[in-house]
Amino acid sequence: MWSNFFVQQEEEGRMGVAGGGQGGGLAGMKGFRGGQRRTNKMSDSQEGKIKLVFFVAIVGVTLTVLGMGTEFWVELAQPKNYSGNQTCQMAHYGLWKGCIRTLWVADIDPERTSCGPAELRGESNCTYFKFFTSGENAVIFKKTTNRNLNLAAAILALLSLTMMLMGSICIAMSLNKGVPFFLKPASFCFILSGVLVLLSVLIFHQSVLALLSSDHSIPLHHELSWSTACVGSAGAILIFGGVLFIILALPFNPWQKCFPHKESTT
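The chain above was modelled as a monomer; its predicted structure follows.
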């Protein structure tokens, strides 16, 4: 009797072990398949495309930093013979600082009626704006700036830099982890940063027009300078890079969807 009992217990134990092994194997296979779905690794070609588009976005970031850090957004020039002596004055400023330059009339192109350009030799007197400290408006050639518009342009520019930084972090994480998941938030950050940069340029131009309309005692010729060109180009490049990141994040090739091969159509 005891021998039959031990034999029965041994058979039940073997069946339990076999059942547990079978269940563990099924669970392991399910976990492996789920992990395969979760770790959707990008290919080498896709990683190369992401790096190439990221380089384009970095060009936009560089142009933005270059434009924001310089004070050549706009040039305001008096007529070169306004003061009636051998010198004339002009001004140029950006988001943070403005400069008054005194140039020699003999160095100016004879066909040019206004003082400038700012690259000519002369004396400069540069000061930082007090919009962000005491809240005072600046006075340039008896014309007063609009503090609210200048502050709005500067804040939008700073927000655009923040979005560029967040987008760069997303791309770095995507390349480090080898997954395309972070491409969508990166594309959103870069597109939004480009839009903010362009809005900053538009609002800055409105602030220049408000400055010119504040007083008409001194005639001034104004023109947007190379810093504005850098920032405007950067905004377009950032939006373009963000759109390319969206295309790379798609689960299919849009080029093949729009233009399928002849073999597939037939």
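The first helix runs from residue 2 to 38.
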